[in-house]
Structures are given as structure tokens and as C-alpha cells.
Design brief:
The complex is a heterodimer. Chain A has 25 helices and 22 strands. Chain A is α+β, with helices and mostly antiparallel strands. In chain A, the strands form 3 sheets. In chain A, strands 3-4-9-6-8-7 form a 6-stranded mixed barrel. In chain A, 40% of the residues are buried. In chain B, the strands form 2 sheets. Chain B has a 6-stranded mixed beta sheet with strand order 6-7-8-3-9-10, sandwiched between helices. Chain B has a 4-stranded antiparallel beta sheet with strand order 2-1-4-5. Classes of the chains: A alpha+beta, B alpha/beta.
């Protein structure tokens, strides 16, 4: 019986090739999309779960509110780990990591770059499941100047020789480290990515008892059944107890008073497994960039939509084409088939279709994955061998798709009554037409919603690209790490200034886009010395404002000649507003917040600079204060782009000479601005592709339905033509019904899309209005694409010779 | 074998009833060859469908081999009909996607006959109807007469107790029709109970008994 059913399934597939191709193509695209997205989602959800104690590990984060502004840090103070362990019995273990960023290793006179190095406490390997290939996890990090390197580092640096016992030296670090262990590479699904762990005992800062400086990633292992939320409520007590005295000394204010002013200093606990997806917005990280749970949800929704749209095609085409199968159902019933057997037969057919599509979909997904990786900045792979869950879940997925697509048609068709269908009484495919139309509307609603979302995302990106940032982004070259020049910094700068291709040079670590130093500072005005205001402080030189093309609203720039400018400030308009002098900012002064009078510095405002976007457009421009100060951050140059390549090679030559071989890095400001919105741009591209795919698959379905409609109405078309209908009239007749559905979908989808995108835009402090343009464009696009699809078939039907179509009856 | 008592069938049109069959009473004994005749729309096909258990009467009683079919649910009716009844249709109703051999095999599959048994039973049929050479052809490759031959082979391959034929010659030329009727007569001669519906007086004469139906009533019932 099974064999017979399979045979019928294959033969009917071949008999209706066009429909089969439409079905398989649609399903394969849907499945491929779904697979890629499921891989992505699975990857995102699996972060840090490789740790055996994953569900007991929490990270301590700093969570404060100072003058209405959130101050989140993912690191806390050095003594926190020890304090929490000794204060709370539910803390079984506490460990710290001090991340140092990427380091250069010197070995036998050669330099090796880009190793991520972190100091870790002795019990680090006890907390995190990072298996050691060599060395004893209990002891490797107990002594000063010990290092554990990853397998990849070992292979890169030592090849086949045994690294254990060798010393490793980092450039710019004073002491070498002895390699005592080799670990497996940290899994990609870890929120930190470290190549070399050095022992915390080597770091004097780690013993520092200060509660005013937070640099340490701190993790706790809680005892079984301990409730981290309960523990979290007790943390403010710890702040009061340990941080309070130090705060009083610094601010001259008790912590209770500080809190009474509406401020808060606190710590929170973050379960390890929610670090990747649920890290609060605005918390900067030096570790792996966190994911965004909203994008995980969006992608999951898209995956489900894609699959639904493809399955709906199958349902619609099956029921629309059911008149062709009706006779078979009738005969089978007469020959003794029970309804259940027919159900099974039709489900088998949809399973067959699903599995052919699955096969094709896997192939498609394999090819599409590198593209997706590139677009979404991921490193996903299909690995059937190392991921044992993949194959069975693929099979399950096939069965699920088959059931989803096949159940309704199977019930629909197996319910045909033989006495009717054998008389030819069926329903020329008109059975279930209401539901079919409903499903088409549903498909187009989904596609149109996605298209509108894509449109709005792109318009917002366009708005960002063309909005005035308040500084020049063109032809601004930035060379970072000026500190590497050491004594030669002035010589390098002079050489640059004399170069005709460089129009002006400034030196500052503060850059309004891309990686930048970050310095929060509290100032009070001369009129209200007790009221401090949080500002961002930029240390700049007198060339900074002209080099970046910023505009002064009033007052003057810093001047080199005037030696006294070191006690002057330039503030932005937002700061002028926040300090709220009634008679203008110029001439007033601001005070640093330290209470001890000898520490309190006074700065006179000499200029107000027009607001510029030093944060992304997600955030409001906040108060900013510029002071004149030498820094060794980045060298910023306004250059003539005509010979940029030549200039870069000259610079690199000088740099190499003056830094003894440090890597020369550079970036252009416009690129840095561009990169600020990478996530949004990526979302835009990926959404665009998915929107395109959904509309394509939905149109495939429409094409299939048009084929059926035309074939069912052959006779009607013949009669109309004999009676004098024109070809355009008939095309219109055949297309009209479908277009109505598309227009209806537009009406339904528009408010949904409006609501969604309005919410998305709330994330930007500076944003466009959703507007009606997108809806008009998307609506027109949908109608045009649908019309085109349907006309392919209806023109053919309309051109057919009526004599032929009528004779066949 | 068949006992029909006050069988009635109607369509409701609001408060109005359109009668298709009214007060049908007759019995068919094992081994009879009954012809049901009547004008178009007289209800003869509906009657055949009821006897074949494809349709249910709205009232009345129907005993088939002493089983009260009118009390059966769909599942039991299907079970009974698939083991006891073979059908032959005017439009042959072969499955287009299956070849001759597979079409004949179909009812055996539903009866759960084992593979080797199926092979020999289908081979018997092919032999008997002289269509061994055509067993791999599909219905579209056969003439009407040949298709009906396959249709009859399929109807009797599982050795039903009752053969129902709904205008089996309606779509055939005279010569092919005669051939088909000869075949039915032969089957009857071998002991099969046959009920056919036809318009054709000549072919009605192949049977042993003619029942005339008009406007849903039995008008006459006579032996040939």
C-alpha cells in the first residue's frame, strides 16, 4: 500500500510539473531561510551554555543613576568579589577577570599581533568550563607571572614544540610570563574571547582596596537553589558598607545624602546565560559584542512567516487543484478505501514534497549561509558531524513542514464524496475558495509588512547619513595610539604639519564617531556651586575645532599664544542650556565637583560650540565640556584626498621609524560614522532580502493559483471571446480578483507595519516620521509585482484560440 | 441477498422536499442479474449508490446479506462494501496515474491481500481478459472498450458477491458495448449477482429481471 501510494505521489508530481516546481521552489526557499535563521537563533541562544555551572553563574555589574543618567558598567571594583564571597554564604565561589585588550607578543625578535589577553583569578578555570589540554586547572594561575595559552596560540607561536615552561613576553609589559597550561580555544559562544590568561597574582591593581574604580569582570557561582534575585536586593547594603566611607572622603557627602539627591549607586546580578542577549542597552563592552534579543525575535518571526507563506502555497495549490484529484478520491473510496487511508496517502504526498524541498533547502541554505554570515556578521556553519542534534532535527523539521502544509489539503480532499465527484459534480476547485483567498491575503500581509519595515529602516538610515552631524566627516584621517610614538610625538606631528597634503592637525583621544575615549565629569556653575551636572569632558588642543570643522555659536576657540587658556573651557549648546545662565554663558565659569576646596578647579567659559553628534543618533546630545589639554590619543588630520595613498605611505614610513615597528593603523572619520550604524544597516539589508524572498514566494503561489483559475475558466474565456471580449478585457477579468486580495492585504498590513516601525524608531532620539510615502511605494510595488505575476498566465489564457477551448468540452 | 424496505431519498429545499426515491421495496436474490431502467433523473443512479453503500437513504431499511446497513456508520459500511461489492462505471474511472496492472491491483491493496496472492489474482484477470500485453500501459493509452475491460477486471478481481454497473456501456460503441455485456453475462453465468443501470433496451435484455423506475417510484418489476 505504502509503495503504491508513493508511486502515485511521484507520478502525480510529474504529471503536474509546473505546480510541483512552484511548490518545491517555494517550500525550498522557505525551508532554507528557516534553516539559516534557526541556526542563527540557536547560536544566539547557546551563548555561555557550554559552562557546566552556567545556570549558577552570575556576573556582577555596576548599575547606577547619577543625575538622571544611567551609568552602567559591566565591570566592578577590585574588592567586590572577595567582599561578596565573605558576606554571603550563598556565594560558593567568586572569580575575577581583568581584560587588557589585544596585545603584541615578542618572540625571538619577531612580533606577533592580536592576542586577546586577560588576567584571571586562580579559581577561574574552576568557575568556567574551559578544559585544559595541559596543566592542572587548580594550580595554573595561582602564582604570579603565570600564563595559560589557547591551543591556537600554542600552534601559532610554538608549532610542534611543547610550549609548557617557555616564557612569553608582551610588548610594553614589563615582566615576562611562564606558560604553565594550554587550554582549548574559548568557544565562539562565550561572551568573552580570550587567547591568553595571565595570573591575577601578577597584577598589583588586583589587590587594590579601592571602591572608586571599576575594571574587574566579576563572576559568582551561587550555591544550588540560591536565588540570585534575592541576593541582588542585598547588594546595596554592601555598597553602603564598603563604598560609603570612600565616597564621603571624595565627595564630602554621605552615601545617604547622595542617594537622597535622587542618585543611586548599586550593583546588579546578571545570569551568565543572559549576558549575550539581555545586557542592558547603553552598557559598553570590551568583550564580544552582545547580541540583541529583539533581533533574535524579529528573525524568528521572519523564519516562521517564510515557512507559513511557503506552506500556504502548498495548501492553496493543493485545494485549488483538488478537482483533478477528486476523481481519484472517488474511485479509491468506491474500491474500498477508508477516509483514513486517503488521509495517509495525501499526507505522504505532502511529506514527499516537503522532503524534496528540504533536500533542496539544505543545499540552498548551505550556499546562502556564507552570504548570511557576511551580511549579519556571523560565523555560522552547517556541521553535521559536530552537531549531532542537527540531522534528527532536520528530519523532524521535514515531517513538521509536511504536516503543516499537507494536513488541511489532506482533510479537504479525503472528505470528497464519491457519488458526487464521480458524477463530475465537483466544485471546479471552488471548494474552500474563501479560505484560499484568506490565506493569500495573509501571505501578502506578511510580505507587505516586511517590505514596509525594510523601507522605513532604509529611510531612517538615509536620514542618518544625510543629517548634519555638526562636524566634517570628509577627508578626516585618524591615526590612533599616538602614545606609541613616545618621545617622538612632536617630531611626528611636525613632519605631518609640514606635509602639504595635510591641511591641519589636532591631537586628542576624543573622536565623535567610532572608538573614542570617554570621560564623564561633574561640573557646577559659579552661581550654584552645590548643584553638579554630569557632562562629557573632551580634552582637546587648539586645532581640534578647526580640524573637525566644528562651528562656534559664540565666543572664541582656544588659543596657543594665550597660556592661560588651560583654565578655560568651551561648552556645547546643550551644556549652556543645562547650566542655565540667564545672561549667556560667556564670562561665567564652572567648577569641578570635588568638595575639598583645594581640589576644586574653576574654568571660565570662553566659547559655546554648536551642538554636534558625539554619540550615535540613538541618543540625545548631552552636555559636553572641552578643555585645553595635551593628550596622547589619536592624531586627527584634515587632509587633501587627492594623494591619500601617497600620504598614508609617508605617514606609515614615519610611524614605523619613530615607534620601532609598531603597527600603523588609520581610519577615516566618514567610515567611522558609517560603522556606527552597522547593526541598523545589517538589519536593513537582511530584512530587505527576507522581504524580497517572501514576496517572491507569495507571488509563486499567486502564479500557481492563476494557472488553475485560467484552466478552470477556459470555457468561460472561450465563450467571452466568441461574444467579442478583447484580450485586455479578459486579462483584466482574470487579474482583478487577485489584485483585490493584494489591495486588501495592503489595507490590513499597513497599520500593523506602522505600529511596529513607530516602535522601532522610538529607539532613535533623532528620527524620521514613518510617513505615508513608504506605504504608497510598497503598495504600488506589491500591486505591480502581483499584476505582472498573474498576467503571465492570464495573457496566455486570453490569447488562446476559443474554438479549441470550446471544442474540448 | 438484498432487501430494500420503504427506501426514501429526498432533498430539502427550505420547507419543500424534492423526492428522488419513494417507497422502494424489492429484494434481490443471490445469482440474479437485475437491470434497473428509467428515464434521466428518475432516481436509478441514486438507488444504485444506495445499494452500493455510497449513499444513505433518508428513511427505510436496507439489509445486505442480512446485515442492517441502514444502521451502520460510515466506517462499517466502508468495511462491508469493500469486501462484498464491485463497481463498474460509465466513465470507467480508472486512475490515470496508475497503469493497467496497478489499477486492477488497487482493490486488493485495500483488502490487505498479500503480495504473492495479489500477483496471481491480477495475473488471472489479465489472462482471462486477454490484456496481458497491455498491463504496463496507462489508461490514456487504451481505447474506451479496453478501459472498460480493465474497469470490469478491477471490479471483480477481489471476487465480490455483488457487481454493480452504472451504465457500463454508455460511453462505448455498439460493438464494444456488446462485448462488455457479453462479459457481464458470462460473469452472471458463473454465479455472480449483477445489478446494472442502463437506458438501452437491448442491453437490458441481457439480464434476468428488469425494474422500471419513474419519478422515484418502482413502476414495474418483471422477469425477462
Amino acid at each position: 500500500m505504502f509503495k503504491n501510494n508513493l508511486k502515485i505521489a511521484f507520478r502525480s508530481l510529474f504529471k503536474h510539473k509546473r505546480i510541483a516546481v512552484i511548490n518545491v521552489a517555494g517550500l525550498a526557499i522557505g525551508i532554507a531561510t528557516c534553516l539559516v535563521i534557526m541556526l542563527f537563533v540557536q547560536h544566539e541562544l547557546s551563548y555561555d551554555r557550554f559552562n557546566e555551572k552556567a545556570d549558577r553563574i552570575v556576573r556582577v555589574i555596576f548599575d547606577s543613576q547619577v543625575q538622571g543618567e544611567k551609568m552602567n558598567e559591566e565591570t566592578v571594583m577590585p574588592p567586590v568579589a572577595q567582599a561578596l564571597k565573605s558576606e554571603f554564604p550563598e556565594v560558593e565561589e567568586a572569580t575575577r577577570m581583568r581584560y587588557t585588550g589585544t596585545q603584541v607578543i615578542e618572540k625571538d625578535g619577531d612580533l606577533f599581533r592580536d592576542f586577546k589577553v586577560a588576567y584571571a583569578d586562580a579559581n577561574f578555570f574552576d568557575v568556567f568550563t574551559l578544559p585544559l589540554l595541559e596543566g592542572d586547572a587548580k594550580t595554573v594561575l595561582t602564582q604570579p607571572n603565570m600564563a595559560v595559552i589557547s591551543r591556537t596560540v600554542a600552534e601559532k607561536l610554538y608549532g610542534k614544540t611543547d610550549p609548557i615552561g617557555q616564557t612569553i613576553s608582551f610588548k610594553h609589559w614589563d615582566k615576562p610570563f611562564r606558560i604553565v597550561g594550554i587550554m582549548e580555544d574559548v568557544p565562539v559562544t562565550s561572551h568573552f574571547d580570550v587567547d591568553i590568561f595571565t595570573s591575577m597574582a601578577s597584577l598589583p591593581e588586583a589587590q587594590n582596596a579601592t571602591w572608586m574604580q571599576s575594571n574587574f569582570y566579576t563572576y559568582l557561582v551561587l550555591r544550588k537553589n540560591a536565588d540570585y534575585q534575592q541576593l541582588e536586593t542585598k547588594l546595596s547594603g554592601i555598597i553602603d558598607k564598603y563604598m560609603g566611607p570612600e565616597l564621603k572622603e571624595g565627595l564630602g557627602m554621605s552615601i545617604a545624602d547622595f542617594r537622597a539627591q535622587g542618585n543611586d549607586l548599586n550593583m546588579k546580578l546578571q545570569p551568565l546565560t543572559s549576558i549575550h542577549l539581555h545586557t542592558p542597552a547603553g552598557m559598553k563592552t570590551d568583550l564580544n559584542p552582545p547580541g540583541d534579543v529583539r533581533y533574535v525575535y524579529i528573525f524568528m518571526a521572519v523564519a516562521i512567516f517564510m515557512l507559513l507563506i511557503a506552506c500556504i502555497n502548498f495548501m492553496n495549490l493543493s485545494t485549488a487543484g483538488s478537482s483533478k484529484r477528486a476523481k481519484e478520491v472517488g474511485i479509491r473510496k468506491v474500491l474500498g478505501s477508508a477516509k483514513g487511508e486517503l488521509l495517509r496517502q495525501f499526507l505522504l504526498e505532502s511529506m514527499l514534497m516537503a522532503f524534496i524541498s528540504l533536500l533542496l533547502g539544505v543545499v540552498l541554505a548551505t550556499f546562502a549561509l556564507p552570504l548570511f554570515n557576511q551580511l549579519a556578521d556571523q560565523k555560522l556553519s552547517f556541521n553535521y558531524l559536530t552537531e549531532p542534534w542537527l540531522l534528527p532535527s532536520l528530519l523532524l523539521f521535514g515531517v513538521f513542514t509536511g504536516l503543516l502544509a499537507g494536513s488541511y489539503p489532506a482533510f479537504f480532499m479525503s472528505a470528497f464524496q464519491p457519488k458526487k465527484v464521480l458524477k463530475g459534480q465537483t466544485t471546479n476547485g471552488t471548494g474552500g475558495i474563501g479560505l484560499r483567498n484568506g490565506l493569500v491575503v495573509f501571505q501578502f500581509c506578511l510580505s507587505i509588512t516586511l517590505m514596509v519595515c525594510t523601507g522605513v529602516v532604509w529611510r531612517q538610515l538615509n536620514f542618518i547619513q544625510h543629517s548634519k552631524l555638526g562636524y566634517d566627516t570628509d577627508a578626516v584621517l585618524i591615526v590612533p595610539n599616538a602614545w606609541a610614538l613616545g618621545e617622538n610625538e612632536n617630531a611626528f606631528r611636525q613632519a605631518v604639519q609640514q606635509d602639504a597634503r595635510v591641511l591641519s592637525v589636532s591631537n586628542s583621544g576624543y573622536i565623535p564617531a567610532g572608538p573614542s575615549w570617554d570621560n564623564n565629569m561633574f561640573f557646577a556653575t559659579d552661581l550654584a556651586p552645590d548643584q553638579t551636572i554630569k557632562t562629557l569632558r573632551y580634552d582637546v588642543d587648539e586645532q581640534y575645532i578647526p580640524t573637525l570643522g566644528m562651528k562656534l555659536a559664540e565666543g572664541r576657540n582656544f588659543s596657543k599664544e594665550n597660556g592661560a587658556d588651560s583654565s578655560k573651557v568651551i561648552i556645547n549648546e546643550a551644556a549652556a542650556k543645562a547650566f542655565d545662565w540667564q545672561d549667556g554663558a560667556l564670562g561665567h565659569s564652572i567648577l569641578t565637583s570635588f568638595k575639598k576646596n583645594d581640589l576644586r578647579k574653576q574654568y571660565e567659559v570662553i566659547g559655546v560650540i554648536q551642538d554636534f553628534h558625539f554619540k550615535s543618533l540613538h541618543e540625545q546630545i548631552s552636555p559636553l565640556v572641552m578643555t585645553l589639554r595635551q593628550t596622547r590619543g589619536d592624531i586627527i588630520m584634515k587632509v587633501n584626498m587627492a594623494d591619500a595613498a601617497g600620504l598614508l605611505s609617508t605617514l606609515e614610513g614615519n610611524w614605523k621609524k619613530m615607534t620601532a615597528g609598531e603597527p600603523f593603523e588609520y581610519s577615516f572619520l566618514d567610515e567611522r560614522v558609517y560603522n556606527t550604524y552597522r547593526t541598523e544597516r545589517r538589519t536593513g539589508i537582511v530584512l530587505g532580502i527576507f522581504a524580497g524572498l517572501t514576496i517572491f514566494v507569495a507571488c509563486l503561489g499567486l502564479l500557481g493559483l492563476a494557472i488553475f483559475t485560467a484552466s478552470q475558466r477556459t470555457k468561460e474565456i472561450g465563450i467571452r471571446k466568441v461574444l467579442g471580449a478583447s484580450v485586455t478585457g479578459i486579462v483584466g477579468l482574470l487579474s482583478k480578483d487577485f489584485l483585490k486580495l493584494v489591495v486588501l492585504s495592503l489595507v490590513i498590513a499597513s497599520p500593523v507595519a506602522y505600529f511596529l516601525m513607530d516602535k522601532w524608531l522610538q529607539d532613535f532620539a533623532y528620527r524620521i516620521k514613518v510617513g505615508w510615502v513608504v506605504f504608497v511605494v510598497v503598495g504600488l510595488a506589491a500591486v505591480v509585482v502581483a499584476t505582472f505575476t498573474v498576467s503571465i498566465q492570464s495573457i496566455k489564457a486570453a490569447l488562446a484560440n476559443p474554438v479549441k477551448s470550446l471544442r474540448s468540452e | 441477498m438484498i432487501i430494500l424496505k420503504d427506501i426514501e431519498r429526498y432533498y430539502s429545499n427550505g420547507a419543500q422536499r424534492t423526492w428522488v426515491l419513494r417507497k422502494i421495496n424489492f429484494t434481490v436474490k443471490k445469482g440474479e442479474f437485475v437491470t434497473i431502467m428509467g428515464p434521466s433523473g428518475s432516481g436509478k443512479s441514486t438507488l444504485l449508490n444506495i445499494i452500493g453503500m455510497l449513499d444513505k437513504p433518508d428513511s427505510g431499511e436496507y439489509f445486505f446479506l442480512d446485515e442492517p446497513v441502514h444502521n451502520f456508520n460510515e466506517k462499517r459500511r466502508t468495511e462491508l462494501h469493500k469486501h462484498t461489492i464491485g463497481f463498474v462505471f460509465q466513465a470507467y474511472h480508472l486512475i490515470d496515474e496508475l497503469n493497467v496492472y496497478e489499477n486492477i491491483e488497487m482493490p486488493l491493496l485495500y483488502r490487505g491481500v498479500s503480495k504473492s496472492e495479489r500477483q496471481s489474482m491480477v495475473a488471472d484477470m489479465l489472462d482471462r481478459f486477454n490484456i496481458v500485453g497491455k498491463k504496463d500501459l496507462f489508461p490514456s493509452q487504451l481505447s474506451g472498450g479496453q478501459q472498460q475491460l480493465v474497469g470490469i477486471a478491477r471490479a471483480i478481481v477481489a471476487k465480490p458477491k455483488l457487481l454493480l454497473a452504472d451504465e457500463p456501456t454508455g460511453n462505448l460503441h455498439t460493438s464494444q458495448g456488446e462485448m462488455t455485456m457479453d462479459l457481464l453475462r458470462t460473469l452472471h453465468g458463473e454465479g455472480m449477482t449483477v445489478i446494472q443501470v442502463t437506458h438501452n433496451e437491448k442491453f437490458a435484455a441481457y439480464g434476468t429481471r428488469v425494474i422500471q423506475i419513474e419519478d422515484g417510484f418502482v413502476r414495474s418489476d418483471s422477469n425477462v
